[in-house]
Structures are given as C-alpha cells and as structure tokens.
Design goal:
This protein is mainly α and about 180 residues long. The chain has one domain. Helix content is about 75%, strand content about 0%. It has four helices and no strands. Helix 1 runs antiparallel to helix 2 and helix 3 runs antiparallel to helix 4. The relative contact order is 0.13.
C-alpha cells in the first residue's frame, strides 16, 4: 500500500525571510501608496481653495470696477455676481484655514517621507539579513517603527482637528496684595 507523502517541512529561515519580504512589500504597496494618495488629495485642496479664494476676489474687484459701464439688462446678473463671488471666496478661505489645509499637507508629506524611508530601510535590512534571527529581528523592528509612525500620524491629525475650536482664554487670578501686620 502506498503511504501518503510526508507533510512539507517549512524551513524557518526561508519562512522568516518570506515574511520580512512580504512586510517590506506591504510598506510600499499599502502604507506608502496610501500616503502618496493622501498627499495628492491635500495638494489638490490646497491649490483649489487658494485659487478659488484668489480668483473670486480678483473677479469681484474687476466687476465692481466695471459696474458703471454695465447696461440695465446686465445689472441684475452683476449684482448677483457681486454678492456670490465674495461669499464663495470667503467660504474657500475659511475652509482653507478651518481645515488646517497647509498643516494637513505637511503632516501627510512627513508621513509619506517617513514610510518611504522605512521601506528603503526594510530593503537594506532584508539584503543584509543572513539568517533567521536577523530576519525576525528586522521584521520586528520594521513593524514597531510602522506602528509608531501610524500612531504619531493619528495623534497629530486629531490634534489638528481639535485646533478648529479655539481654546477658551486662560484667566489669571488677580495678584494678591501683600498683607502687613500692624505692629
């Protein structure tokens, strides 16, 4: 009778190297790609909100200057434009400031750079790892650093969100007058 083939044996060194290779690949395909897309979105909103605010104020100024040369048929449209454009520009500028657009762009760009550096370090560690212990040590180091970076990004992101509400002013207690004892 034929016996079933023995179960495949796993070489722990190759398993550790495979896991390290998988994680380094994940750093690039998942983490770094996410930060690159996030930076792209932040850049889009940064440029769009700035441009809308600038163009709305510019067009409003031009239309206000041309107000005297407008015929009566265009007068109603001009009045609407002179009301809507400043509102639009103010809305864009307010969104730019309230959503901390420059700070978010900086935060995500710092995250992108950090994960790019981490992925490069992972490739260096993978190339330098000569045994199972080196691979496992490198994997643990990379996973720890990735978790730290994610926690830092999360904490910083929510700190920006809390900054949207100005903190209440701190009140100082009135200075106390020195008391003197009658002698």
């Amino acid at each position: 009778m034929d016996q079933p083939p023995p179960p495949p044996t796993r070489d722990p060194a190759s398993a550790a190297r495979a896991e390290l290779t998988r994680f380094v690949s994940e750093l690039k395909s998942e983490y770094l790609t996410w930060y690159e897309r996030s930076v792209g979105r932040c850049k889009f909103w940064y440029a769009t909100l700035q441009l809308v605010s600038l163009l709305a104020s510019l067009v409003t100024s031009v239309l206000a200057a041309l107000n005297t040369a407008v015929t009566t048929s265009d007068e109603k449209a001009l009045k609407y434009a002179l009301v809507v454009l400043p509102i639009l520009g103010s809305f864009a500028a307010t969104c730019f400031l309230q959503f901390h657009t420059p700070e978010r762009l900086q935060l995500r760009e710092e995250g992108r750079i950090a994960f790019q550096d981490l992925e490069l370090e992972g490739r260096r560690l993978l190339a330098a790892a000569s045994n199972d212990t080196d691979c496992l040590k490198a994997l643990e180091q990379l996973q720890t650093r990735a978790s730290e970076l994610e926690r830092h990004q999360s904490k910083s992101f929510f700190e920006l969100a809390r900054q949207q509400q100005p903190p209440p002013p701190q009140q100082q207690p009135p200075p106390q007058q020195p008391t003197t004892k009658p002698t």
